[in-house]
Amino acid sequence: MFESREQAIELAHEMLPEEIIPQVVDLFVPCIGLEPTGEVGANTLGGTRIGGNPDVPEGFEWPQLQFEESDIGGRPIPDLDVENALRSPSVPFIAQVNLAEAHALGAVSADLPAEGRLLFFWDYRIAPWLPVRSAARVIHDTTPVDQLQEATLPDDLRREHEAELQEYLKNFGEPGDLSAFFVPAVGARLYEGITLPPSIHQPELDPPELKNGFAKFREAGFADEVSDYLWEGNPPLADPEWRKYQLLGVPNPVQSDPRYELKEFADLSEVEADPTKWRLLFQFAFEDWNYRIGDWETYFLIRNEALARGDFSDVRTVTQNT
Question: What is the pTM assigned to this prediction?
Answer without folding.
Answer: 0.89
